[in-house]
Design goal:
Blueprint: E1 28-29, E2 36-58, E3 67-77, E4 85-91, E5 103-126, E6 130-137
Antiparallel strand pairs: 1-6, 2-5, 2-6, 3-4, 3-5
Length: 142
């Protein structure tokens, strides 16, 4: 979807979308009612880096407040096509009534040297999952 792609999750602003189809929102969302491998994104780190966690912000779907990520998995790989190693399996609180949802720092149980991260939505609150911000944490940048 060109309006809500994963490339939107690098802004720390709160949810924004003008409803103009030519103006992308500043958040990422999944298809309605879907979960799994196809409901996520792959992030290129452009080179191999040791990663220790992620900073993220769950969100609501702007004024609709009808979407929120519940359970997700983050995987890492040296190659965009895998094989993938699970780095984190986590649950988030329902953010549909938080104003605004808080930034959260989630640390991996073990650090990993990877070139790609894969985010997969496993469960959601409301109509589907979404994120407003996602950032990789490397040692020294905690």
């Amino acid at each position: 979807c060109s309006i809500f792609p994963a490339s939107n999750i690098f802004s720390k602003d709160i949810d924004r979308w003008s409803k103009d189809l030519k103006d992308p929102a500043n958040y990422w969302l999944t298809e309605n009612g879907k979960v799994g491998e196809e409901q996520g994104f792959i992030m290129s780190l452009e080179c191999q880096k040791t990663v220790v966690g992620v900073n993220l912000r769950n969100t609501q779907n702007a004024r609709h407040r009808d979407r929120s990520t519940k359970k997700f998995r983050i995987l890492g790989s040296a190659d965009k096509n895998g094989p993938w190693q699970e780095l984190l399996l986590a649950n988030l609180e329902d953010s549909r009534r938080q104003d605004p949802p808080p930034f959260q720092q989630l640390m991996f149980p073990n650090s990993a040297a990877v070139s790609f991260l894969k985010f997969e939505l496993l469960e959601y609150y409301g109509r589907g999952g979404r994120l407003q911000f996602f950032e990789v944490i490397v040692p020294g940048n905690v």
